[in-house]
Specification:
By secondary structure, this protein is α/β, with parallel strands linked by helices. It has a domain at 7-197: Alpha-Beta Barrel (TIM Barrel). Helix content is 38%, strand content 13%. It has helices at 17-28, 34-37, 43-48, 82-93, 113-126, 143-152, 165-171, 177-189, 207-219, 246-259; strands at residues 32-33, 53-56, 97-102, 131-135, 156-158, 195-201, 224-229, 263-266. The protein has an eight-stranded mixed beta sheet with strand order 1-2-3-4-5-6-7-8.
């Protein structure tokens, strides 16, 4: 039996003129969002703020992470017009801060790095004052792909470690904990771009393992951290081993400070791009 969701993890359904406007702009520009595809609990709150996290390179992912609601299937061909559509949506929404993420595209030689870069270039053409954060896959650690990203120079580079080392292979069987750290390290050592990473908790990790992971992130000079509660998308996904209490999130903030990470969002409903412009 699935454990009942604590009240502090529940969000009301919000349907307003603003949320409908965001949905219309996304639909008109043929865009996907991680808000919809990953069933983010903060979706409606973000829509009321005229923001969304754009999901590029299709709806299908080449990896089958055991916590993620995005479909693992044969990926769609790249839409070469998507970067222009993203830029137009950013302009139509009046965004001062745009977040772009993607499915993992191991089928592409560069993992989609050039497509990410093109999105950044197109946004800058139409909205030169908009800050851009990208949340990328690991590109299999390919340095040429990372160089493409660095050249495009997003305002924040985010790559999620997702979970502690001890749980990593269970949650992300096609990923590699050290590769994720190396990606963050390479961007930091070869640019002045602030780096960011995040964890889901509730997958069976211990406080000590979380603390070790935060130290690993600090050791690669990660600037910004997010930590939030894992919520099981369906019975086919990994079960929740623990719902952390609000008091425990305060303890986690203490662990982040102890590790030397001072810019963070840590809380039950925090997700990678939640209030991204505020950290």
């Amino acid at each position: 039996m699935r454990e009942r969701l604590p009240e502090y993890l529940k969000r009301p359904i919000i349907d307003t003129d603003k949320t409908r406007k965001v949905r219309k702009i996304l639909k008109v520009n043929y865009l996907n969002t991680v808000c919809e595809n990953a069933r983010c609990p903060n979706k409606n709150e973000c829509y009321t703020k005229n923001t969304a996290t754009f999901l590029i390179m299709g709806n299908n992912c080449t990896r089958n992470c055991k916590y993620c609601n995005i479909t693992c299937a044969k990926p769609e061909p790249l839409d070469v017009n998507e970067p222009q559509h993203i830029a137009k949506a950013v302009k139509d929404l009046g965004l001062k801060y745009a977040v772009i993420t993607s499915v993992t595209r191991d089928d592409l030689q560069d993992g989609g790095a050039e497509h990410f870069a093109n999105c950044i270039y197109e946004i800058r053409k139409l909205c030169p004052d908009t800050k851009i954060e990208i949340l990328t896959p690991d590109f299999k650690g390919d340095k040429k792909a990372l160089d493409t990203i660095i050249k495009a120079h997003p305002d924040v580079f985010n790559h999620n470690i997702e979970t502690v080392k001890e749980v990593f292979k269970t949650a992300r069987p096609q990923g590699n904990y050290q590769t994720s750290l190396d990606v963050l390290k390479y961007v930091k050592e070869n640019s002045d771009i602030p780096t960011k990473s995040g964890l889901m908790i509730g997958l069976g990790e211990t406080f000590e393992q979380i603390e070790n992971t935060l130290q690993d992130l600090k050791n690669v000079s990660c600037d910004i951290l997010t930590i939030g509660q894992y919520i099981q998308p369906s019975k086919q996904h990994l079960p929740v081993s623990k719902y952390y209490t609000p008091d425990e999130y305060e303890q986690l903030k203490g662990l982040a400070r102890k590790a030397g990470i001072t810019r963070f969002q840590i809380g039950p409903l925090v997700r990678s791009s939640y209030n991204a412009c505020e950290i």
